[in-house]
Design brief:
The chain is mainly α. The protein has 2 domains: about 1-100, no CATH class; about 130-283, no CATH class. It contains 9 helices and no strands.
């Protein structure tokens, strides 16, 4: 019992730290079309190769006090934060589900959407390696015991892609009709990026149709609240014609990732509450 309750989640957390270290590399290199294999990890300031003992997750950053051993320039706190967060996610999944395939599947899903949120927040790009590669992983893991079956996973992937594709096309058409040129001013040609569409295909592969619906709803709410909160201090900006400015396109993948994480952990309970308390269904 002690082995199951403590040792396995601890080992999973240590493995998660290593995954988090690799996730840093993926989320920083894939968006700029760089290999995650070569070149080896190096200091971004002096380009000195980082020795293995200076590349241990979290520990090396703390020992070196967040600086490069060679040039003493600061090293971003993103590295240990991503490593520690990923380690905690893996530990939490094995505490929640025990030593099961579902714990492994959940940890993989959360790791992928975490990497997506990092890439989208920094580069406004969701790499295909995360979205399409994650879809393949999600569909493959649907054949494992526990969790979602392969058919709901396949339907969810198709629905996730289809719904976001329709929203992107319809949204682009509406904005161009009502306010020509606004999308170009905001920094994009479409109301929603292709990365978001492919990301929801991946979410559907892991969470199914209900997970897609809940993720889109929660992601939209999170995005709306964030935009409103950010607009309160400075007020709503207006252009020279007195009309509200759209500003830059927001990295919607970050909010979809948050919605996806909530949907995975609490989605079943939220859907059950809605169907019984709101719709009055008896299950």
């Amino acid at each position: 019992m002690l082995l199951i309750e403590w040792v396995i989640p601890l080992v999973a957390g240590l493995y998660g730290l290593l995954i988090g270290s690799f996730l840093n590399v993926c989320s920083l290199r894939w968006p700029v079309d760089e290999s995650v294999i070569r070149p080896r990890s190096r200091c971004p300031k002096c380009t000195t190769l980082i020795a293995w003992h200076d590349n241990l997750p979290v520990i090396s950053w703390l020992i070196l006090r967040g600086r490069c051993r060679n040039c003493a320039e600061p090293v971003s706190a993103q590295y240990p934060m991503v490593e520690a967060s990923t380690g905690l996610m893996w530990t939490a999944m094995f505490v929640l589900h025990g030593p099961t395939w579902e714990a492994f599947r959940g940890a993989m899903f959360l790791t992928i959407i975490f990497g997506i949120s990092i890439s989208d927040a920094r580069f406004y790009i969701i790499p295909d390696e995360f979205s399409i590669g994650g879809t393949v992983i999600g569909l493959g893991m649907a054949f494992l015991p526990d969790g979602i079956d392969w058919l709901p996973a396949l339907v969810g992937a198709a629905l996730g892609y289809g719904v976001l594709w329709f929203v992107a096309v319809a949204g682009t058409w509406i904005i161009k009709r009502l306010s020509p040129g606004r999308l170009e001013e905001a920094g994009g040609a479409q109301a929603m990026g292709g990365g978001d569409i492919k990301m929801m295909m991946m979410v559907g592969a892991f969470l199914g149709a209900w997970g897609v619906a809940l993720t889109i709803f929660l992601g939209s709410v999170l995005a709306l609240v964030t935009v409103l909160v950010r607009s309160i201090p400075a007020g709503l900006a207006r252009d020279e014609h007195g009309e509200m400015e759209m500003g830059r396109l927001i990295p919607f993948g970050v909010f979809l990732a948050g919605g996806g994480a909530i949907s995975y952990v609490w989605g079943d309970a939220m859907v059950m509450w809605y169907m019984t308390s709101v719709l009055g269904m008896t299950l």
